[in-house]
Amino acid sequence: LILTGDAGEALEIYYAIFRLREEGHQPEVAAPSAKPIQAVLHDFEPGLDTYVERPGYRVPVDRTFEDVDPTRYDGLLIPGGRAPEYIRNRPAVRRIVQHFFETDKPVGAICHGVQVVAAALAIGGRDVTCYGEVACEMEQAGARYHDKEVVVDGNLVTSRTWADNPYWMREFLKLLNAR
After folding, report:
1. Could you give the CA distance from residue 113 to residue 126 in angstroms, rounded to a whole number?
2. What is the rounded distance in angstroms from the CA atom of residue 120 to the CA atom of residue 117?
3. Regions of the chain where pLDDT drops below 50
4. I need a surface site. Which of 14, 74, 130, 179 has the fewest CB within 10 A?
5. Which of 42, 99, 112, 146 is catalytic?
6. Does 112 participate in catalysis according to the annotation?
7. How far apart are CA 125 and CA 11, in angstroms?
8. What is the pLDDT of residue 179?
């Protein structure tokens, strides 16, 4: 299961979908509504202190958050982008995330995706990595931040940005394929 929405990071969403399919899994995308979402591409431009955002690809959605039965899924992925800042506020999203931690199923969060894990009160006491500008939020939620390409803590796999996609998915797939 992939949780995202409009302004989710296109490279993280599609990389996850393609890698999961390549391994024989059937990824499904859940979002606030059943319409295709508008993903974005984040990048850095010389002379700017933060990233820029460009329109990315359209991503088909399989179901809404409210229609998700988390017991049907073996793993959960939460891509970054701006989507996590608003999907984390939905009770259905927090319910879904909490299920994966309560049942010790694999969870992968990249970039800003850890904001969703924190909102579900599942980040405290864990070792994580994420987009550097979110690190203080994770520490305030009780996590230990590490500036590394990937951090695995039990069933949670975290990475910094789309540039770390290969490391994120490698470790997530290890957990998923072991189930």
Report:
1. 15
2. 5
3. none
4. 179
5. 112
6. yes
7. 29
8. 87
